[in-house]
Amino acid sequence: MKAGLPAVTAGREVNLALKDIRHNLGRFLLTCLGLSLLLGIVLAMVGIYRGLIEESLGLVRAAGGQVWVVEGGTRGPFAEASRLPGDTRIAIAAQWGVAAAGGVSYQNVEAQLRGQTKRLLVVGAQIARPGEARLVDEGRPIIRSRYEAVVDRGAGLVLGEQIKLGRDTFTVVGLTSNLVASGGDPVIFITLRDAQKLQFDLTPAASRRESVRSSGTAGTTDTVNAILVRLMPGVDAKRFAQDITRWKHLAALTQEDQETVLARSVIDRARRQIGLFTTLLLTVSTVIIGLIIYTMTIDKKKAIATLKLIGAPDRRIVGLIVEQALAMGIISFVAGVALINAGQGYFPRRVLLELTDAAMLFAVVLVACLVASALGVRTALRIDPASALAG
Amino acid sequence: MAEPPVVEVRRISKHFGEGPARVDALREVSLDVFPGTVIGLRGPSGSGKSTLLNVVGCILEPNSGTMRLNGELVYDGKWLRADLRGLRLEKIGFIFQSHNLLPFLNAWENIAVARILAGAGAAQAKGRALELLTYLGIERRQDAMPGELSGGEAQRVAIARALANDPRIILADEPTAALDSPRAAAVMDLLRKVATERRTAVIVVTHDEKIFDRFDHIYSLRDGALEPTRASAA
Ligand SMILES: Nc1ncnc2c1ncn2[C@@H]1O[C@H](COP(=O)(O)OP(=O)(O)O)[C@@H](O)[C@H]1O
Ligand SMILES: [Mg+2]
Fold first, then answer.
1. B96: CA distance to ligand 2 center in Å?
2. Fewer Cβ neighbours under 10 Å: the N or C end of chain A?
3. Are B57 and A309 in contact (CB < 8 Å)?
4. What is the interface pTM, i.e. ipTM, of the complex?
5. Does the pTM exceed 0.80?
């Protein structure tokens, strides 16, 4: 007789919310599955947004400068056209506090890569000066002044491969990763001199003559889009940038300013769209949680009346419902995170899941659960304990 | 009877509705129930039996009169105690016509929950639940869900739940209505045993003639008023 007794699990907590969930497990888990998909989409959108920022900032960060000197009255090449004479670099380099200064140029080109037309962002930078490709993770940086290139892996090239840009052919000597333009185009580094020649080659002959005439500097192609400055230790970048901006024809942004400018211009619209969708999805999630919790409460009417009759205080009843809503939110959130982690490789763009974003969404989900349980709580509190006696 | 009554109802009246729709469910009802006794409440349908039970159970507020439970004046024209649920939890056990077990808890959990609500720890509550199941002779059904229990078993679990906090009063509204004669008799035996051994006052609403001989007193209600009482055969 005794042997047939199921094992006694002494001390096991009797949690009403979880017991009831277990009683209706199928419906509960199905709802959680649906919710986890919604929350997964929210996470993916936020992750793609972060990925966008990260991608577009990657280039600016990889440059390794502290101050960007640009054309006066502009916010730099990532916001608008910025052109300044190449010899400005010498004047900047001579400033007190400057450790190194390098001219950089940016241009979008279309190139034939293995028979396919691809858009590339060509970065012209000076050897061993700020702006060059520092973080080469395969091969080496550019060391010859002509016809060498460091290319991002995104272009699909391998070391030693040849690539034709304009009239010249370049050899890939190094590869970087995750360096793309804000549109997603891979980046290719060549020397500033090669880049200036490429610019010249690609400009139609007529406008070439025009620009020579108007600028008065006959034959000069020595222009850059920005000069990147690395400061000596202890020199205040903000102060330095302010001093440079006082110069005629020049403006300067700190690295921080530059990142802000970029984030604003590239990302503002994406932020608004993603914000809208996120709000919509979270609202839908809240409504779903609310409806399911409400139905679960209605199904428990008699049980709740009985609990009240026995003498359960209202906070127990409220706790029962709120705990169920929270359980639903937490399970769905965890499943959503797992889903996104599992599917991360399948997204067309980089999905960057940041802990702070996940924590924020988690907090929002918890608040949504509380809001969603309001209807159920209201219903439960109105149940008359005497109704437990009827029938 | 040297002991004071556990339930003292004095001139309690309760009506529903007003004007032409007014129903006088209780008219100046007075009633004493002593520790260790089992009393019956009978009367035709609509005579006010459930209403009286709900008033004694502090679920329904009467309109006038006074009521003492366990010596404490709880109603005197109005409730004198804010925490009626706490009072119910500690002093009153309820048994229903349909057992009203929580469908998502198994047998021992249904009993333990009453204990836990009263502030006991999980282990202590479980111990008490198993003890009561043994007391009522259904310990082997401790892990069964309510849906798996027979009517008689479910009613015994419900009685165990009513006993969980050692109440001074047990209120049972037609506890045998859903049971056949032998099981109804068994449930009545249990209530008698509880009353005798634990000095509990038990009030049972019933119109089941088969069990009339099992009460210390039977009170008859008609149109909300008590008719002269008669002692039972016992
Ligand atoms: N909540 C209520 N609202 C209105 N009338 C009620 C209510 N509860 C009971 N009554 C009326 O009070 C009278 C007594 O009801 P009740 O105590 O349930 O009778 P019994 O349990 O003896 O069948 C009946 O006429 C019933 O219709
Ligand atoms: Mg009734």
1. 10
2. N
3. yes
4. 0.88
5. no
